[in-house]
Amino acid sequence: LAEKDAEVTRLKSVLKEMGRNPDPADSSRLDASGYVEPNQEQFGRRDSVPSDEQQTLNDLEAKRYEWEQRCKSAQNRLEMLQQQLVDSSRKYGQQISDHKVEIAKKDARIIELEYLLEKSGAGRRG
C-alpha cells in the first residue's frame, strides 16, 4: 500500500507540474475521497498541451484513479480481516474461559473426592 500511495503522490505532483489539477469544485465527478474522475472537458485543451503530452497526462490520470481504487479495495479488505480477527479472538477467548471453568470444577471435584477418601480411610483406622 505504501508503494501505491507513493505512486499516487507522484502522479499528483506530475499533474501539478503540468498545471492540470482536477477542479475539486466540480462535484459531479467527485467520489468519496474527493478525487475528481478525469474527463475530456477537463484535460482535452489542445491549445495549451500537445497531443502526446495530453495522452500521457490522460494515461497518468487514469493510472492514478486505478491505483486509488485498488488502495480503497485493499483498505476495505484489511478492515474486514481486522474485524474477523477481533471476532475470532473474542470467540476463542470465550472458549478458553469456558475450558478454564470446566478444569476448575473438575479440580474441585478431585479435591472433594480426595478429602472424602482421606476421611473414610481415617475413620476405618481409628
Give an overview of the whole structure.
- With about 130 residues, this protein is mainly α.
- It has helices spanning about 1-20, 40-45, 50-125.
- The model is unreliable at about 40-45 (pLDDT under 50).
Give a nutshell description of this structure.
The chain is mainly alpha-helical. It is built from three helices and no strands.
Write the layout of secondary structure elements.
Blueprint: H1 2-18, H2 40-43, H3 51-125
Helix pairs in contact: 1-3
Shape: rod-shaped
Give Rg in angstroms: 33 Å
Strand count, sense and barrel status of the largest sheet are:
none
Distance between the termini: 79 Å
Number of DSSP helical runs = 3
* Low-confidence runs: 40-44
Please state the average pLDDT score. 80
Number of strands: 0
Q: Strand percentage, roughly? A: under 5%
What class, by secondary structure content? mainly alpha
Which percent bin holds the helix content? over 70%
Order of helices and strands: HHH
Task: Give structural attributes.
126 residues, mainly alpha
